[in-house]
Design a protein that fits this description.
three-stranded antiparallel sheet, about 40% strand, alpha+beta, globular, single chain, about 80 residues
Length: about 80
């Protein structure tokens, strides 16, 4: 978040595109850490599955304004698109 803040122009906008929500595939369920809500590979997190409200809260807590947030429901995982300033 600090790096985004550093390079973002004043009044600049950026888009977050992220998987989110409960894992749906058996592979994702098997590699999901329930505590961090991240998919793990080799014991290290590589994708988040935090719910949309939690993703928005993380951005707000980092000092960004969430201008718009949409959730697309998919059979394999849900997808969040969040526009921030």
């Amino acid at each position: 978040m600090k790096e985004i803040r550093r390079i973002l122009a004043p009044e600049g906008i950026f888009v977050v595109s992220s998987m989110c929500g409960e894992p749906k595939s058996e592979e994702a369920k098997a590699s999901c850490d329930a505590r961090s809500l991240c998919l793990l590979r080799g014991g290290y997190p590589y994708r988040t599955l935090k719910p949309l409200p939690e993703l928005c809260r993380e951005l707000t807590d980092a000092g960004f304004d969430v201008l718009d947030a949409k959730l697309a429901i998919n059979p394999w995982w849900d997808h969040a698109t969040i526009v921030c300033r």
